[in-house]
Amino acid sequence: MAESFPDGFVWGASTAAYQIEGAVKEDGRGPSIWDTFSHLPDKVSGGETGDIACDHYHRWPEDLALMRELGIGAYRLSTAWPRILPEGRGRPNPKGLEFYDRLIDAVMAEGIEPWICLYHWDLPQALEDRGGWQNRDVASWFAEYSAMTVRRLGDRVKYWATFNEPNAAAVLGYAEGVHAPGIRGRTTALAAIHVMNLAHGLGVEAVRSERADLRIGNIYNFHPREPASEHEQDERAAVMLDALWNRSFPDPQTRGSYPEPLAAEMEALVQPGDFDIIKQRPDYFAFNHYTRSSTRHDPDHPFEAGTVPPAPGRPVTDMGWEIAPEALRAVLVEVKERYSGNLPVYILENGAAFPDRIDEDGRIRDEPRIAYLRDYLAAVLDAIAAGVPVRGYFVWSLLDNFEWRFGYGKRFGLVHVDFATLERRLKDSFHFYGELARGAPLERE
Ligand code: FCB
């Protein structure tokens, strides 16, 4: 059965600065927390770093040609705060702004709509040295950086997001310590959540006072968390992880309160007027989604909530993430009921890592990735049929890239990158996605 997406549906691809750019010391860029973290021993598989990554900083014309060939209508990138403000605040680095300026012009010259995310996890190290996301001042500095970037690019870029997955940045970076800046704790994570929420609010205000004609939102991550058993402790752990992961940003930002059971603990951090700053009317509602999982009580976890690997026999990606497209449909329906109402909804990341193999004829027959995309896109069609106004889908990712603590071993791209030579090679999924982007209906299994 073949089914079409609605007219005007946006087909995009997403990337992030630290994962693709490389050139970390070039043209005045300052260090970010990921430069520091990835250079510490045993933090990233194989000791890999983003020093070179895909070398997109130099090879972007080639990557843009790939986007043209793919036929996408939109490209989501992130601007690197430490490229624009090497010290995190103060005077901008002209070469940093020029890089994005040129890139945006070139993207638009291809008829591709750029979407900019202002924060994809690369906090300037100079600000981490002042307490990072635990320091309320960082929220104001984020707003200054946002305003500065919009002043330069907002005449052309219409779609903006403050944060990519602030929940992941807070939980992985300031609770579990497995992402930069590598802090493990509970109060540290709660502080980071609150300061990032404030930064979102101040950022939206700053962007809107620069220009009133932009569309701005935040990019959440929804990952359904079921209890692993009926034991009360597991149920409590699942409710906690759901609040922490799925609700601690969209709840205050769209409803003006922290979710239970975190609300009481957050009270100590909330100052009068904070929710007036945090709750801002978004112009669209966006999120990333990859998988679902179950949760068990884990006394060693800062929030006593541990993630259980999928049951043996369940289909998984190379990340070990369960492939469960019905979870995306459920998330979309819930998002509309709980948060987005009639706002246009965008999926700004979805995709899968698989251990791709280059065949002797040079082709990469990545059937598992094609199947993943086909099934998840079918779930998007189901949600649209159920009345969710999904207006676009962005695949993660255009290129294989630096997958955070997993380094270059996990490949999410539609384009294969040989990290020794930096050669790009199209995978079969590139052609599959390109046909959809050009308007072909989805052949449902
Ligand atoms: C998301 C991140 C993105 C990428 C994918 C696989 O959580 O936003 O940078 O790492 O996961």
Entry summary:
The chain has 445 residues and is an alpha/beta fold. It has helices at 17-20, 33-38, 56-70, 81-84, 94-109, 125-128, 136-153, 166-174, 187-210, 232-247, 250-255, 263-266, 274-278, 325-340, 367-385, 428-437; strands spanning 2-3, 10-14, 74-78, 113-119, 159-164, 215-221, 225-227, 285-288, 293-297, 305-308, 345-349, 390-396, 415-417, 424-426, 442-443. The site of beta-D-fucopyranose has 12 residues, from loops.
Structure, described:
This protein has 445 residues and is of the alpha/beta class. 40% of the residues lie in helices and 15% in strands. The chain contains 16 helices and 15 strands. It has helices at 17-20, 33-38, 56-70, 81-84, 94-109, 125-128, 136-153, 166-174, 187-210, 232-247, 250-255, 263-266, 274-278, 325-340, 367-385, 428-437, and strands spanning 2-3, 10-14, 74-78, 113-119, 159-164, 215-221, 225-227, 285-288, 293-297, 305-308, 345-349, 390-396, 415-417, 424-426, 442-443. Beta-D-fucopyranose is lined by residues 16, 19, 164-165, 168, 221, 288, 349, 396, 403-404, 412.
Give structural attributes.
alpha/beta; TIM Barrel; binds beta-D-fucopyranose; three-stranded mixed sheet; 445 residues; eight-stranded parallel β-barrel
| CATH top-level class | Alpha Beta
Overall number of domains? 1
Tell me the total number of β-strands: 15
Largest sheet: 8 strands, parallel, barrel
Q: Give me the number of helical elements.
A: 16
CATH architecture descriptor? Alpha-Beta Barrel
Strand numbers in spatial order across the main sheet: 2-3-4-5-6-8-11-12
CATH fold label:
TIM Barrel
Ligands in the model, by name, code or SMILES, are:
beta-D-fucopyranose
Share of β-strand residues? 15-25%
Can you say what the CATH homologous superfamily is? Glycosidases
Helicity, as a percent range? 25-40%
Structural class: alpha/beta
Radius of gyration: 20 Å
Ranges where pLDDT stays below 50 over 5 or more residues in a row are none
Shape designation:
globular
The N- and C-terminal alpha carbons lie at a distance of 7 Å
Q: Look at the structure and give the mean pLDDT.
A: 98
